[in-house]
Design goal:
single chain; Sortase, Chain: A; 18 helices; 38% helix; elongated
Length: 526
């Protein structure tokens, strides 16, 4: 097999016999770098082949023309040695062989080819090589003709498909052929909309496993009302078929609805501003909560240090030579639920905050705080134990209550702080049957000015915001008993605790479910 190679400007031409009449002048052409001949002997010697190619090689060559299918295989082999070639034109009208295609795939320099045709399966394997084919198909469908699709390469490279009419049987068949080859389609335009047409198209895409396609529907006077009505369904269709549907309105429609569009635009901007503002407020509120929570934790550590100091001093005072420290701790623990001397603890806490009136503890919650009482019920809603501004507030007694001679109903308030369940944030645990069925949890420890008292829970409930349970004193025993019945009937559980006109009760109150409801726990003094 002989291959003749000729150079014409920036083209390198491969032919089987077209240049044979140059043979008698071959030496002169070789010297002028015009034509060379490659035969089997040269092909067998790679070094000799490269030497021959170097005679004609220059950087201006970027296009190869292969005139005959018989020399295609050898030509592609030679082209692989010439890195400047980006474009190949197969001049003969035959389909490329699979061998030709794989040879092209091995060449990383080729950017574009023009051939008569190429096997469909190889079309998609070509990757970044742009393919142009000359073999024309005779399509019968309106879709193919409207989109000027008549060659394999046009099918493969098609990125936009326009649909103007409802589907016929031939449209389905030829579209299936289209999608077998096409690898680049991303948009379908519908210019003569109907819901049936859209539905047929979506079902066809689904049947052929085609997703992530953008469908643009063009509005006009004939379809305006129907399209606007159907547009409400498009969100569901997008999710169902995994596609995008956009409506492109005409200039006439936009002009008619200009004011409406402006209003929609303003609403969107206002909504965006509101969202940004809400996010900023949420972030700021989160920071404030974090800062307040950190301050509360620091105060709790200081309070615990006071308790530990008093407890340690108490142990040191009672220890003798016959007892070790651990034995004394056990004795103290058996005699006090707080494992400390309340008088001393109260005195030390009073130094820290003069409003201190006692200590409150509820089993299996985070509630273990000093309690305070101010001249009103507002101050400790936003001040901490150290009297610093703090949105978490503190646990405080109703200003109406007499802590020296207890009223019928002593009321203690606290915010339900979700962050780390601070203040009364953990009181919601009392609503769990697992919590209130544990008898140890039903005794509340309340130290009042150094004196330890215990209170037995008899009612737990949530209720819409009301003040009917916040009465401190009663004009008669009958009114008091009516009050007791009212709050017992609300309870989520019957605790079987009798409360008489002679009993005094304790009420713990906090917010529940935001600020619309209250969580309330009642206990009687025992």
């Amino acid at each position: 097999m002989k291959v003749f190679i000729k150079i014409e400007e920036d083209n390198i031409i491969f032919s089987k016999n077209e240049f044979e009449h140059y043979l008698e002048f071959l030496d002169n052409y070789v010297q002028n770098k015009k034509v060379i001949k490659i035969d089997d002997e040269i092909l067998k010697n790679e070094n000799l082949l490269k030497e021959k190619i170097s005679l004609i090689l220059n950087k201006k060559i970027n296009k190869a023309i292969i005139k005959n299918s018989q020399v295609c295989e050898i030509s592609l082999l030679i082209i692989n040695y010439i890195k400047y070639i980006k474009y190949i034109y197969f001049e003969y009208d035959k389909e490329l062989t699979y061998s030709d295609c794989y040879s092209l795939l091995e060449n990383k320099n080729i950017k574009e080819i023009n051939c008569y045709s190429i096997p469909n399966v190889m079309m998609k394997k070509m990757g970044n090589i742009k393919i142009n084919t000359r073999c024309e198909y005779l399509f019968m469908s309106d879709i193919m003709n409207d989109n000027n699709i008549d060659t394999c390469s046009k099918i493969y490279n098609k990125e936009l498909l326009v649909i103007n009419k409802n589907f016929r049987e031939i449209d389905y068949k030829e579209l299936e052929f289209f999608f077998q080859i096409n690898n680049n389609l991303n948009t379908i335009e519908i210019h003569n909309y109907s819901y049936d047409l859209l539905n047929d198209l979506l079902n066809f895409l689904k049947d052929n496993n085609i997703i992530n396609i953008k469908i643009i529907i063009y509005e006009n006077d004939l379809v305006e009302k129907k399209l606007i009505k159907d547009a409400k369904k498009f969100d569901k269709l997008e999710k169902k078929y995994n596609i995008q549907i956009k409506v492109k309105y005409s200039d006439e429609y936009k002009e008619k609805n200009k004011l409406k569009e402006i209003n929609i635009y303003l609403v969107r901007w206002i909504a965006l501003v509101c969202i940004v503002f809400a996010v900023a407020c949420f972030s700021f509120n989160g920071y404030i909560q974090y800062k307040n929570g950190l301050e509360i934790k620091n105060e709790l550590e200081e309070i615990q240090d006071i308790k530990d100091m008093v407890s340690s001093n108490s142990v040191n005072e009672v220890v003798d030579e016959t007892q070790n420290i651990e034995e004394v701790k056990v004795d103290l623990k058996e005699n006090s639920p707080y494992y400390m001397e309340y008088n001393n603890v109260y005195s030390e806490l009073k130094k820290k905050n003069s409003d201190t009136v006692g200590l409150l503890s509820v089993n299996n919650t985070n509630i273990n705080y000093p309690i305070v009482q101010a001249k009103d019920n507002d101050y400790y809603l936003n001040h901490s134990y150290s009297k610093h501004n703090n949105l978490a507030g503190w646990i405080f007694v109703d200003y109406r209550n007499n802590m020296d001679n207890l009223d019928k109903n002593t009321i203690i308030y606290g915010h339900s702080v979700s962050h780390d369940e601070l203040m009364f944030g953990s009181l919601k645990r009392t609503l769990s049957d697992k919590w209130y069925k544990n008898e140890d949890n039903l005794i509340i420890n309340l130290n009042i000015k150094g004196e330890d008292t215990k209170w037995q829970i008899f009612s737990i409930y949530t209720i819409e915001e009301t003040s009917d349970y916040l009465q401190v004193e009663f004009d008669s025993d009958d009114l008091y008993l009516d009050f007791i019945k009212l709050i017992k009937d609300r309870s989520i559980n019957d605790f079987g605790v009798e409360v008489t006109e002679d009993d005094k009760i304790l009420t713990l109150s906090t917010c529940y479910n935001g600020s619309e409801e209250r969580l309330v726990v009642h206990a009687k003094k025992i």
